[in-house]
Each structure stands twice: as C-alpha cells, then as structure tokens.
Design brief:
Elements lengths: L1 H57 L13 H18 L5 H17 L8
C-alpha cells in the first residue's frame, strides 16, 4: 500500500510543518511582547521623568500632560507634544531687551545736540 504510506507521510509532514510554524509564531509573539514591555519600562524609568521635570520647569498644566493616557509610549508622546507646544508659545527672552535697547538709542539720539545742517 504505497499510496497509504505516501498519504500518511504527507499528513505527517504537514502536521510537523504546521506544528513548527505554530511554535515559531508563539516564540516570535512572546519575543515581540517582551521587547515592547522592556521598551515601556525603560521609557517610564528614563524618559518620562525627564519630560515631566521639563514640563514642570516650563509650567505645563497637568491637564495637558497626558496623565490619563494608558501606556508609556502614548504618555511620552503626549508629554513631548505638550512641552513642544509650551516652548513654541513662550516669547523669546531677549525680545524685551531689544525694545529697551531701541528706546535707549532713541533717547540718546534725541538728547544729542544737533548740527546746524540737520535742522
């Protein structure tokens, strides 16, 4: 019965191949899940505290920090977006200095004696 042996061989090979694929998929899924968990742990330990301190320094309100967001990756993105928004809204620190320097220059020019040809 060579045809029965061939059919059993095909079925055994198919079962072995599917079993191997299932084992590989299971290991791959666990590895990806473990890497994701490690990434989230590192983000929570290293990146999120730095971003929270930066948000405190800039005065970002807690409601904009993404506190209610689940997961380290969305929390990190929410904090970074809030910090970027706050930094973009802050005026440049030397803007007042330029205005003061301009006012002082105008006063100096007005107090300087004029030449006869300027009048």
């Amino acid at each position: 019965m060579p045809s029965l042996d061939a059919a059993l061989g095909v079925l055994f090979g198919l079962a072995l191949g599917l079993g191997g694929a299932a084992v590989w998929i299971g290991r791959h899924t666990r590895r990806v899940w473990r890497e994701q968990l490690e990434l989230e742990t590192r983000l929570r330990r290293v990146v999120v505290p730095v971003l929270e301190r930066r948000a405190d320094v800039l005065g970002v309100p807690p409601s904009e920090r993404g506190v209610s967001v689940e997961g380290a990756v969305p929390l990190t993105l929410a904090l970074a977006a809030a910090i970027k928004k706050q930094e973009e809204s802050v005026d440049l620190p030397f803007g007042d200095t330029v205005e003061v320097a301009r006012a002082e220059l105008d006063r100096e020019l007005e107090s300087r004696p004029r030449r006869p040809e300027e009048t």
